[in-house]
Specification:
Length: 434
Amino acid sequence: MSGVGESDSIELLWNRLPERMRNRLKHHLNENERLLWFAQPNERRMARRALPGLIIKNIFPLFVGSGFLSAGLLWEFVNPNVPASKWIWWIAWTAYVVSAISIFSRYYIIYHRAMRTIYAITDQRALEYCATFISRVQSFQWSEIEFGSVHSWTDGSGEIRLEPRLIHRKRRLNDYGNIRFEFLNNVKIASEIIEQFLGRELPHEKPVHRIRNHTIELAIPEADHLARPLKEQLNVEMNSDEKVLWVGIPTAHRMALRTAFPSGCLFLIVFVCTGVTYFVASIVTSIIPEGSFKRWVQGIPWLFGLLLPVLGGFTILAIGAGCYAARRTAYLITNQRAVIVKVGMGGRIISFGKTALDRVQVRQLDNGGGEIIFEEKICQSIADSDSTEHRSDVIGFFELKQIEPARIALEQLLGYQLNVQHLNALSLNQDHKC
């Protein structure tokens, strides 16, 4: 057994594993399979990341406990001489205890599962093995892996996701058919080995840089039209030997239209339903006699009418979010890679090297705008045995006002011409990640 570990030699790391895990992992390896790398996730960081979600899942018993506790305290404040009933305190503290037990037990399970999880790379496949009470093994041959991405953090740690082209999702809750190497202490070693077997670079995603000195000199003249936070991020991200070929931003009103389209359509549907129910209710109430049923029929249109301001507010917020995202997003093509930069809340930087841009799709509208897709993942959502829904997740340059300059720069980077798909409208059955 030879290869590369995260920091020490692979033999030393192998000997540190419990004998039970070593035996089980050997059982899942083929006789002629050679282990090149393996690692375990950082169990503390994995458990800490899951903690906010565990609290949210237990929000109902916490809400019940807080309600009864507030009722008891309010009673004793208003009636200082009459103590509150004991069952109020009993229900409040029972709800808190149940929530605490649920949160900490689930926290311990995640922590324990991380300690029993092994990520491995062999000369034949990538493998994820969890040696808990119910063992779980998931692996992909190198020929089966269609997509991958590297998420790195400033301290060198990170995670790697490997996926086939068709991703199966059951009941929209869990992903089936992907491997995630989570919370690796050194993500660079694993990503380099995987890129060697895949024969191409993986897209690299990382958080935006923390810029403390805002008086730094901006050395990218092509980015003068961008907002200053974007210019600062690009200035720090650029390598010394990189040459900028093209810089662009998404169109604000198109981005706003895309983000507001779902809530806007729902608003129109509810608006039409309100008018129809009002018309029908007016006819019905003119026929039926006075009574509680007539008042109930007259109140049906108001139920739809109450939803209109709520959906209208969501639509307005979606328009504002789309405009904000457009002004905080920049697209960059250099002589080495294509880069997506997004600053603000959830800011990140995604870069695609030359070999990672092997599935580029150029979609051009009649007005010269369009989008350039770098990666498209087809997701198959299975709600039940008879219902299957197909949807694709795409990453790339979206809502460009003019696509021709970006296409020319991308062809200059890749060294060959790209096929252009001329479309009348962009697909709405796609989740645009950036």
